[in-house]
Specification:
Number of strands: 3
CATH architecture of the largest domain: Roll
Number of domains: 2
Bound molecules: zinc ion
Largest sheet: 3 strands, antiparallel
Strand order of the largest sheet: 1-2-3
CATH topology of the largest domain: Ubiquitin-like (UB roll)
Structural class: alpha+beta
Distance between the termini: 64 Å
Radius of gyration: 22 Å
Helix content: 40-55%
Order of helices and strands: EEEHHHHH
Length: 133
């Protein structure tokens, strides 16, 4: 059986015990014993169903951990600044329900909001200026 790489059209090679590293948001996991077809030229892979499932689960785990870290960070910053959720939502100009969802991890907080919170975390003296904007 020959399979051509969908990316570069070179011949792919069968491997039953591949180890792949999955990375997301600065954290990595190693998934061992992956079976599938691998392109020696460009690195593309077509995993068997069971391997694709395990590889996907590793990605899901990293994504979930990243969200947990983010929601914990948002809460930590808010508490450090001694703000209620309502005050924090007014500070950054969003609804209090949205802020609560970000803090509980129900919704991924938008990157600009996170950057703003980190800025105020590093420079709490800017708090009143941010609130006045
Ligand atoms: Zn390829």
């Amino acid at each position: 059986m020959k399979i051509k790489c969908p990316e570069c059209s070179k011949a792919m090679k069968r491997d039953e015990s591949r180890t792949e590293r999955v990375e997301y948001d600065g954290e990595a996991m190693t998934v061992e014993g992956l079976a599938g077809w691998f392109c020696p030229s460009c690195g593309e892979a077509i995993l068997d169903d069971e391997s694709a499932r395990r590889y996907g689960e590793a990605g899901d785990t990293l994504l979930a951990r990243s969200r947990e870290r983010l929601q914990a960070e948002i809460r930590r910053i808010r508490k450090k600044l001694k703000l209620t959720q309502v005050e924090a939502s007014q500070l950054v100009g969003i609804g209090k329900i949205a802020f609560s969802r970000y803090e509980r991890g129900e919704t991924q907080a938008p990157a600009p909001l996170v950057k703003l919170l980190r800025l105020v975390d590093q420079h709490p003296e800017l708090l009143s200026e941010v609130g006045a904007l």
